[in-house]
Design goal:
GO terms for molecular function: nucleic acid binding; RNA-DNA hybrid ribonuclease activity. The protein folds into three domains: about 25-90 and about 275-290, no CATH class; about 100-270, Ribonuclease H-like superfamily/Ribonuclease H (Nucleotidyltransferase, domain 5), CATH 3.30.420; about 310-405, no CATH class. About 50% of the residues lie in helices and about 10% in strands. The protein is built from 19 helices and seven strands. α8 (about 175-190) runs parallel beside α10 (about 220-235). The structure holds zinc ion (ZN). The site of zinc ion has 7 residues, from loops. Zinc ion binds near residues 349 and 352.
Amino acid sequence: MALRIATGAFKSSRIENLQVDAGEPPLNFRRYYLSGNYVAKVIYNINNPMRDIIMNISKHGRDLIFVNSPKPLAVRFSEWIDLKNIYPLLRLPSCPYPPWQIRFPQFEKISASTKHSVLPQEFQLKYCEYINKNRQNNSLVCFTDGSKSCRGVGSAHKINQEMSTYRLNPLSSSFTAEAFAMEMCLNNLINHPIADNILIFTDSKSLISSMQQLFCRNILIHDIQVACHKLILKGNNVKIIWIPSHCGIAGNEEVDKAAQSFTNAQIYSLITPVDLKAFLKNEFKKKWQIWWDNIQPPNKIKEIKDTVKEWQTSNRNLRKEEIILSRLRIGHTRLTHGFLMERTDPPQCEVCNTTITVKHILCHCTKYTQIRLKYNLNNLQIKDILGDNPRTIDLLFKFLKDSNLLPKL
Ligand SMILES: [Zn+2]
């Protein structure tokens, strides 16, 4: 009902068409999504009593017990997705450290310019200047980088000349790869003798901004902050410095290559809560898309929209236009389907002598051929006219105004 009010669709429009037009999942799918989020939260909390129930539900038991009664969350979830292989790989949170006691490193950047505004040579120069200014007798220069590609996820860090590489769980994000490289670098530095200056270069701005947050919920970032804190307590001066990637700065290029190659890499297969949540969200989207793929034609909106994703063009400046667009895409307008409400016969086109449909008006009706030509809509299919192209949608509204069709829809 809320979707019908929001999209302005008629009551004759089918509910699944409204949902796809609005980019909103059906309620049973939304339930999957929410339960996935909840399960991802609970299984990382060893004090939560639900954790054992969710993790120990067996395939065998669930069929016997819940024949006639509603199935509990853990059973429903285990029917949807089998996480058995993932349970041993959870990266559980370490002991929380009071954030007000944590000492932060210094955050710097070699240049205030952005990567696209200056030449790589300028960054190389800035890097050399920075190193000359900050490198003292007893300094450690480190680089960290992470990479995610179709071949896998890798992390690398370099402390002076010593390179270490890791191969991560394929579910890890590129952010996790960057953060893990930083964490391993800091953990290795703990065993080094005290240095006046530890310079750690990274090309990840998002990692640096997460490291600056006082209350970060990502357990990887929390552990990085604690590792930094311990290094500083030992008497080291730690600086985390941003450098642009792919600008020919030797150390950065080396770790970048190492993170992509994984040769002789150590395996680290634990999964963080953020990555597990992202994986479950992705599975939910796949399931939702399969549902839409299996909806049988005839279905007018399916001819236009084959994805369940929300379309940007559905949002317009005028609500009136949003309603019209939604009605056109669903194929139910006042002009074509008003007869259902008035209990009369379907409307006929006087010029072409055929039943009026949205497709007929926009693509075929000879009455509007000239106006279609004027706005370059003449050779387009219905899929192209009502698709997610902002320019075509603007032309479509000009066509509708010019042909006086707008108030009739
Ligand atoms: Zn016609």
